[in-house]
């Protein structure tokens, strides 16, 4: 099982890479194939939307046929999407490729969470979930400065061909090494509708919708255009800024698990962390003109905005065992789909805001995102706390 989990973890590193690498490629894609910031926002949004749409069938597949075949087959499709990206000659091809990659990555993290829920004690679920995201964020880091160096040395097409090959190898390793956990005992049946009929889950679903989207959307795309347009940054500088935010997201993912054990609460930890994220967004909204302050606020947002594994742990504590797969994927659906919708919305906001000064479109993006997070925090404050 350990070798299989290692293969799943490698797949999640790739998933994190794919959701964030467009920020670094912004300058070269604009110069080579004429892709605009709005094009790349739409492509990033399609990644998240394709990922989200797949959560319902992925949940069914995890409960019925297990994580091994589900993840290996989907990740192979993601490798095909990466190969298509490497051959792209226009923004339309990039959008299609990103949709395929998003669908291909859709089961990776939930397969890990399914195995944790079926194999390990409930009390360690939050820590294992956070550690998985923390290690997986190495892909986030890989999509920053290392990618910019690879693009400079080999070109963006060669870099993407290499990533496509690695993705195919990891899919094969999952097929060969992963073992499905035992099925839930008994013959209880249930559906997604049964979960949606549980009012106790509703505040967690709302929190999932707003806790991950700000850091994911900004790190996944807007860091690149912001620093290019406002500060005149090149790909190397954008890679460095992305690296800082990525490292902060790694640190935050590892911090939430120990903090849960220290504080003995999930609800108030999640609320406090996301209030800090809201403060960072408000700072970016009001003053996106100083590079040093902007980097510090992006790092704060990355650290505090890494709460979504803990929100899943909070929701999972109320989910019946026989609906584990569908339950965690439902929560993930509410976490991922809003990122895609936010990318599409902020792309429109950016394009429709006059660039005078150059920071104005980005202030509008940050302000809109901050208001969404604030609304979600109000709803989540009515949730019921539970730890295992």
Which helices and strands appear, and what pairs or packs with what?
Layout: H1 2-20, H2 22-33, H3 37-53, H4 55-64, H5 67-86, H6 91-104, H7 108-119, H8 125-136, H9 138-142, H10 145-154, H11 156-177, H12 192-196, H13 202-211, H14 213-231, H15 235-263, H16 267-286, H17 291-304, H18 308-316, H19 324-352, H20 360-380
In short:
With 388 residues, the chain is an all-alpha fold.
- Secondary-structure arrangement, i.e. CATH architecture: Up-down Bundle
Quaternary status: single chain
Largest sheet: none
CATH topology: Growth Hormone, Chain: A
User: Treating each run of at least 4 consecutive H or I residues as one helix, how many helices?
Assistant: 20
- Fraction in helix: over 70%
What is the CATH H-level superfamily?
Answer: MFS general substrate transporter like domains
The assigned structural class equals: mainly alpha
| Rg measurement, Å | 20 Å
Low-confidence stretches: none
**What number of domains?**
1
Morphology call: globular
- Arithmetic mean of pLDDT: 88
Give the terminus-to-terminus CA distance.
24 Å
């Amino acid at each position: 099982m350990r070798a299989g989990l290692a293969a799943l973890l490698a797949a999640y590193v790739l998933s994190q890479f794919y959701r964030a690498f467009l920020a670094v490629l912004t300058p070269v894609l604009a110069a080579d194939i004429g892709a605009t910031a709005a094009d790349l926002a739409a492509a990033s949004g399609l990644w998240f939307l394709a990922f989200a749409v797949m959560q319902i069938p992925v949940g069914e597949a995890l409960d019925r046929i297990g994580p091994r075949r589900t993840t290996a087959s989907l990740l192979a499709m993601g490798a095909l999407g990466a190969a298509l990206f490497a051959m792209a000659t226009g923004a339309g091809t990039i959008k299609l490729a990103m949709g395929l990659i998003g669908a291909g990555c859709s089961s990776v993290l939930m397969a890990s969470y399914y195995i944790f829920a079926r194999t390990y004690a409930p009390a360690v679920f939050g820590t294992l979930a956070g550690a998985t995201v923390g290690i997986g964020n190495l892909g986030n880091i890989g999509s920053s400065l290392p990618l910019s160096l690879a693009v400079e040395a080999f070109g963006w097409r060669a870099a993407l061909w290499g990533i496509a090959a690695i993705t195919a190898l990891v899919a094969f390793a999952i097929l060969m090494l992963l073992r499905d956990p035992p099925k839930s005992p008994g013959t209880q049946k249930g559906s997604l509708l049964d979960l949606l009929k549980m009012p106790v889950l509703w505040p967690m679903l709302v929190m999932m919708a707003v806790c991950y989207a700000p850091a994911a959307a900004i790190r996944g795309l807007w860091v690149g255009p912001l620093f290019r347009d406002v500060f005149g940054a090149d790909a190397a500088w954008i890679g460095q800024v992305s690296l800082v935010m990525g490292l902060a997201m790694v640190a935050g993912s590892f911090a939430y698990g120990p903090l849960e054990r220290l504080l003995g609460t999930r609800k108030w930890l999640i609320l406090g962390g996301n209030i800090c994220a809201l403060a960072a967004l408000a700072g970016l909204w009001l003053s996106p003109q100083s590079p040093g302050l902007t980097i510090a606020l992006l790092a704060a947002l990355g650290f505090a905005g890494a709460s979504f594994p803990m929100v899943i742990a909070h929701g999972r504590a109320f989910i019946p065992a026989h609906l584990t797969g569908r339950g965690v994927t439902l929560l993930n659906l509410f976490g991922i789909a809003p990122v895609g919708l936010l990318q599409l919305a902020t792309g429109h906001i950016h394009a429709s805001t006059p660039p005078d000064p150059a920071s104005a479109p980005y202030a509008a993006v940050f302000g809109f995102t901050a208001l969404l997070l604030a609304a979600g925090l109000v709803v989540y404050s009515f949730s019921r706390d539970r730890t295992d």
